[in-house]
Amino acid sequence: MKRKIIVTGDGSKTIQIEDWDEQYHSKHGAVQEAYHVFIEHGLRLFSNQQVHLLEIGFGTGLNALITYLEAAKLNLRIDYVGVEAFPVTMEEVTQLDYCGQLGMESAKNVFHEMHDCPWEVPVILTDTFSLTKQKKDFREINEQNLFNLIYFDAFGARVQPDLWTEDIFKVMYDALVKDGVLVTYAAKGSVRRAMQAVGFMVERLPGPPGKREMLRAIKI
Questions:
Q1: Could you tell me which residues come within 8 angstroms of residue 75 by beta carbon, excluding any fewer than 6 positions away?
Q2: Domains in the chain, number
Q3: Residue 143 maps to which CATH number?
Q4: DSSP 78-145
Q5: Domain range for residue 213?
Q6: Other C-beta atoms within 10 Å of 53: how many?
Q7: pLDDT for 38-53, tens place per residue?
Q8: pTM, two decimal places
Q9: Half-sphere exposure (CA, 13 Å, Cβ side) for 111?
Q10: What burial class does residue 103 get, using C-beta atoms within 10 Å of its C-beta: 0-12 exposed, 13-18 middle, 19+ buried?
Q11: What distance lies between CA 219 and its chain's CA centroid?
């Protein structure tokens, strides 16, 4: 599918899949959305501990980058697993220039290593941040009772409804430890009901710019 780089509402860039009219991040602000959904309502629930974190849709690596940047402030040791079936190219990573957008040129080498490092093996990026990229379909995830936090950042239900079903959220539920948290930008009633059907306690939260609400789910 044809992809192109576009500028979003906060000045940061994302990738658009033209055939679907779908973006990797919000058109209203890629960086704003990432911080609001995944950091403010996910990562910042944790402090002074080891966090096993699963990202559904590693994509551009933006969520991994900002998690790396914010983890030090929260005194977190991060074991980050990013699942992605269709990796972006290094040319696209360079064009996105997220380190420049964030004013963190010092993190550029780490960000590039996130994309350059091999798949399927843990890579120690720093003393407190390891990354394992898994190139596979989300349905193939088989970890049980491992993760404290899931960033669910799949393409929207409008274009990939099969990624927002009870079957998928059962995989997510099983992968989390008790009291583990899943956060996503989505807020559709069908998504919330699918989460609840597999056992999650789900709450609606204020959404990022351009969205009224988002969802946070807790394994009870």
A1: 47, 48
A2: 1
A3: 3.40.50.150
A4: EEEEEE-SSPPPHHHHHHH-HHHHTT-GGGHHHHHHHHHSPSSS-EEEETTEEEEEE-S-GGG----S
A5: 28-219
A6: 24
A7: 999 999 999 999 999 9
A8: 0.96
A9: 26
A10: exposed
A11: 18
